[in-house]
Design brief:
The chain has 214 residues and is α/β, with parallel strands linked by helices. It has a single domain (4-213), classed as Cytidine Deaminase, domain 2 (3-Layer(aba) Sandwich), CATH 3.40.140.10. It contains 6 helices and 8 strands. The chain has helices at 8-20, 63-78, 104-113, 161-170, 180-185, 194-213; strands at 4-6, 26-33, 46-55, 81-89, 118-122, 136-142, 145-148, 154-156. It has an 8-stranded mixed beta sheet with strand order 7-6-5-4-2-3-1-8. A hairpin with a 2-residue loop joins strand 6 and strand 7. The longest helix is centred in the last third of the chain and has 20 residues, at 194-213. This is ER membrane protein complex subunit 8/9 homolog. It comes from Trichoplusia ni. Belongs to the EMC8/EMC9 family. Residues 4-142 form the MPN domain.
Length: 214
Amino acid sequence: MGEISFETSAYAKIILHAAKYPHCAVNGVLLADATKIRDGAKNQDVDIVDTVPLFHINHYVSPMAEVALTQIETLAQTNNRIIAGYYAACENFKDNTTDKCPGQKIAEKIVEHFPSAVFVVIDNRKMMQHLVTSALRMHTFVEGKWKPVDQNRFGFHSRYVLDTVSHLLQRGVQKDLVDFDNYLDDVTQDWTNLGIEKLIASINASNTIDCKED
């Protein structure tokens, strides 16, 4: 397995999704930079640049999931991105393994098209400790099973990721996050969460300025 890296907004949307629905299982897909992907290659580095929250109610392969994945894939291709993985959080606080997560069929569908796909499980027990450590567990598909990835192969693009996400949670930004369940209820809502991306970009810019001043 190659290295797995996350942009700030990609990690933030996962945590915000779980924080918005702490009483529900949630899931979504990971988007990687397609320009860094070698077609058909296994065990390659995966640069996760964005995530798209899917559901907190309808977690399984269904007509709604097919519609969502089709729309996401169309947008991804427009932006030189590829669906490169899946994330999920279990409803039960103590369940933090892939076999307990919802929508495994979606993850398996993704790995059929991208052999180096990543399955991210949100560790519910670490959701209250995000200030100091990542709340994600990485897995890749090996010999027909999802197997854990050494945490040393996982990292962030910015050293400010955890601080930024903490700031977003303190501001209550999770209430503004839109997943596909929200979108299907009201199609005027933005499932790309562009507003949150812009907010994160402004925070990142501020962090960069502070760093230069130091």
